[in-house]
Amino acid sequence: MKYRYAGNSGFKISEITYGNWLTHGSQVENDVATACVRAALDAGITSFDTADVYANTVAESVLGEALKGERRESLEIFTKVFNAIGPKGPNDVGLSRKHIMEGINGSLQRLQTDYVDIYQAHRYDYETPLEETMQAFADIVRQGKALYIGVSEWTSEQLREAHQLARQLGIQLVTNQPQYSALWRVIEEKIVPTSEELGISQIVFSPVAQGVLTGKYKPGEPYPEGSRATDSKGGASMIKNTLAQEETLVAVQKLQPIADEAGLSMVQLSLAWVLHNPNVASAIIGASRPEQVAENVKAIEKPLSDDLWDAVNETLAGVAVTDAERTYQMSPKQRPGTN
């Protein structure tokens, strides 16, 4: 395994992070989830990402149980707060001091740990003053319940304001967690330059565009049975509406010769592509079978050359989503489920 710094800090995370967004507590049984976590550890992955909202807190519990007995100092554990959890009452959502403080305590209990390495704001909360949010995060860091602070899908302006407040409060905002892949490049115009300036890294999710970049979705053919595009609980609407348009699927099929030239599978090519961006500290992978983990990690063995990176971009030109304005649509203007 290789490691990269999280932002402008001395903290290193593995280039591949194991995440359990759409699997643990929902799509796969707990014993399979545990086997996948063990496979990640065996492959050298030390960074693990989850969130309290995944499977309405169950995913955190599954991950905590799977990591039980491991040397805590040898792991990097990230979780998130914002979305509605539990009975989803008016204070069970958002980035108010109340929800953040209760959120970290619940997450630590479920993860069976005294602290998380990065505590992340899952989205931006337009209903809570940012000063309140950042003060709560600062208090959590000072209490030793989190070592660093991160965010997810924030705009460049929000990153800049939060970074300034973090410095004033004496804490480190080190990461942003956006969606990023060869098909979803909306962070490149504004988020990445701002992050590079401020010393913030990206920990990216959906580097394989939720399976579209595997090439398993064939143009003109029905979606494979059991695939994410057929699972209403697994992001099917996002795949169908944004990433799995017919012209996109045609272009993706043309990536196979590039993958062959690089000596990589299509999944490995996709991971190598995102890791080619120096502002990316880590790419998050998920798995429904243990063998998938070891295969995906091989992506770090063969860094993508500039020529092959360009070849991927040229192949997907016209179908990759690059509109920076999409970053302004990621956080809801009102807290979900409370109106």
Layout of secondary structure:
Elements: E1 3-5, E2 12-14, E3 16-19, H1 30-42, E4 47-49, H2 58-66, E5 76-81, H3 97-111, E6 116-121, H4 130-142, E7 146-151, H5 156-169, E8 173-176, H6 191-198, E9 201-204, H7 236-243, H8 246-253, H9 256-262, H10 266-275, E10 280-285, H11 290-297, H12 306-315
Helix pairs in contact: 1-2, 1-11, 2-3, 3-4, 4-5, 5-6
Pfam families: Aldo_ket_red
Domain NADP-dependent oxidoreductase: 15-314
Region (Disordered): 216-235
Within CATH, the superfamily carries the name NADP-dependent oxidoreductase domain
- The whole-angstrom Rg is 19 Å
Output mean pLDDT: 93
Biggest sheet descriptor: 8 strands, parallel, barrel
What does this structure look like?
With 339 residues, the protein is α/β, with parallel strands linked by helices. It has one domain (12-329): TIM Barrel. It has helices at 30-42, 58-66, 97-111, 130-142, 156-169, 191-198, 236-243, 246-253, 256-262, 266-275, 290-297, 306-315; strands spanning 3-5, 12-14, 16-19, 47-49, 76-81, 116-121, 146-151, 173-176, 201-204, 280-285. It has an 8-stranded parallel beta barrel, surrounded by 6 helices. A two-stranded antiparallel ribbon has the order 1-2. Strand 5, helix 3 and strand 6 (116-121) form a beta-alpha-beta unit. The protein is globular.
